[in-house]
Specification:
Blueprint: H1 3-31, E1 39-42, H2 49-63, E2 73-75, H3 82-91, E3 98-102, H4 105-111, E4 123-131, E5 134-138, H5 146-155, E6 161-164, H6 171-183, E7 191-194, H7 198-206, E8 212-215, H8 217-226, E9 229-234, E10 262-268, H9 274-289, H10 291-300, E11 303-307, H11 309-330
Parallel strand pairs: 1-2, 1-3, 6-7, 6-8
Antiparallel strand pairs: 3-10, 4-10, 4-11, 5-8, 5-9
Length: 333
């Protein structure tokens, strides 16, 4: 073999080895994720619906070995979820190991003027589930159904006070006002009071501070069981199947043609890697297929409404536009 031919052979072999080594490095980089714990960040206090969702997801993903690292849950409450969201944007940019659990507040806070950040500043990964608000009165109230409530407010928007745990323009408020608007009520003049947590809200209905309560199912189910509340309607398309909830009619059944979902989803920090995003999107899709997660849905009266990243992003864009229009109509913008 000539020296020139031998040299070319050696060069070609070296190039082949180099190419294989690059492929191996890339494969190792992708396959090694996650190589440390992934934190689920909840921008609300412990014990609420979002916290319960994050902790349930963390438990199932670890137990089912969907994620082979530990998944601690961290609470950073404040500002209707904006404190935790600001933290992940400002301090976790490019971090593939911190995920934010959030809801429609990620849209509402900016639309309502409470913050300058929204879903476009983070990385939508997956929409997980939905539940639906229920409107309640005390069990001894003369208001027997949702049409009694709406008729009274249509005649005099100041005649009843509505309460919830969200800020004005937040989930509990907007749920009720969507139904009231459809009924033809002057919603700008309906009084709404915010309470710090479901305990204060329940007490306010029981002591007469408010006459109507707008809340998620797990905030009121104990009071329904105790016989203290009467549920007048739910903002879903179909009734709940739970024994205590199955007799609550939907708005549509009562002639008010609206529904509204309270969704919960998962977001990554800005500029997270595409490989990590794809891994996590796939992980959450595996989560919803497990029997353990399906049992969580039943336990907490949640509805599966999974969307992957692209579909979720489109959903957020559409929701953002709808809510902006409704805020204008409510006089909140």
């Amino acid at each position: 073999m000539s020296n020139g031919r031998a040299l070319r052979t050696v060069v070609m072999l070296l190039l082949a080895v180099f190419a294989l080594s690059l492929t191996g490095c890339q494969q190792t980089k992708t396959d090694s994720y996650p190589s440390k714990p992934i934190t689920f960040l909840v921008p609300f206090g412990p014990g609420g619906g979002m916290d319960t969702t994050a902790r349930a997801a963390a438990k199932v993903m670890v137990d089912e070995k969907i994620i082979t690292q530990s998944v601690p849950v961290e609470n950073r409450a404040g500002g209707g979820g904006s404190v935790g969201m600001s933290y992940i944007i400002q301090h976790r940019k490019n971090d593939n190991y911190t995920l934010l659990f959030h809801s429609a507040g990620i849209l509402l806070n900016k639309i309502g003027g409470q913050t300058e950040i929204d879903y476009q500043d983070v990385t939508p990964i997956a929409k997980l589930l939905s539940d639906f608000n229920i409107f309640c009165v005390k069990s001894d109230s003369t208001l027997q159904n949702i049409n009694d409530v709406m008729s009274m407010l249509k005649n005099d928007p100041k005649s009843l006070i509505v309460g919830g745990t969200s800020e004005p323009g937040g989930n509990d408020h907007i749920n009720f006002m969507i139904a009231a608007k459809e009924f033809g009520i002057d919603i700008k003049n309906v009084e709404y009071i915010t309470f710090d947590g479901s305990g204060e809200l329940v007490a306010a209905l029981l002591n007469g501070t408010i006459q109507v309560m707008s809340a998620g199912v797990n905030d009121i189910i104990g009071q329904l069981e105790a016989g203290n509340f009467r549920a007048l309607g739910v903002m879903s398309d179909n009734r709940y199947e739970h024994e205590l909830l199955k007799d609550i009619p939907t708005m549509k059944e009562q002639g008010i043609n609206v529904s509204y979902e309270t969704w919960r989803g998962v977001f990554g920090p800005p500029e997270m890697s595409e490989e990590s995003k794809e891994f996590l999107e796939d992980a959450f899709e595996k989560l919803i297929e497990t029997d353990a997660w399906k049992q969580m849905l039943v336990k907490y009266n949640w509805t599966n409404s999974f969307m992957g990243s692209d579909e979720f992003n489109k959903f957020l864009e559409e929701q953002n536009q709808t809510i902006e229009e409704f805020y204008t109509e409510m006089g909140l913008k």
